[in-house]
Design a protein that fits this description.
Layout lengths: L1 H19 L5 H8 L5 H23 L19 H17 L6 H6 L5 H18 L6
Organism: Flavobacterium pygoscelis
Protein name: YeeE/YedE family protein
Pfam families: DUF6691
Length: 138
């Protein structure tokens, strides 16, 4: 129960940050895909930079996970088709729906009940991927 509470607190903080930064705003996402505003690109750039720094710190300082085991980050396999295909599908879904998977629960929590349709689509896509993953380029 104690571990669950930690994750809930981090989730609430993440939700507040995304909401206050307007990263869950359909209009901000629309602006991004229309190349009308730098707002979302700035948020994404900060997230990428934070991830790069975090991974470098983990690798260089051999940081351990919560159970005390070494965190091993494997190198990616060579190839680009899967990244292009996956990125295009993800981007199209994001542009059509106006939300990436991260804010789905935040939007539902904020009372946007139509986002349940988006959640259903995300779960269906995940399920279909599970069925087809052996036939897809990895």
């Amino acid at each position: 129960m104690k571990n669950i509470l930690k994750y809930l607190v981090v989730g609430f903080i993440f939700g507040i940050v995304l909401t206050k930064s307007e990263a869950v705003s359909w209009y901000r996402i629309y602006e991004m895909f229309q190349f009308q505003s730098f707002h979302m690109y700035g948020i994404i750039s900060v997230a990428i930079l934070t991830g790069v720094i975090g991974i470098q710190l983990i690798k260089r300082n051999q940081i351990k996970d919560i159970k005390g085991e070494a965190i091993v980050i494997q190198d990616k396999e060579k190839g680009s088709a899967r990244y292009w295909i996956g990125g295009i599908l993800f981007g199209l879904g994001w542009a059509l729906v106006g939300s990436c998977p991260g804010p789905i629960f935040i939007l539902i929590g904020a009372g946007f009940w139509t986002v349940f349709i988006v959640l259903f689509g995300a779960l269906l896509g995940t399920y279909l991927y599970g069925l087809l993953k052996n036939k897809l380029p990895h």
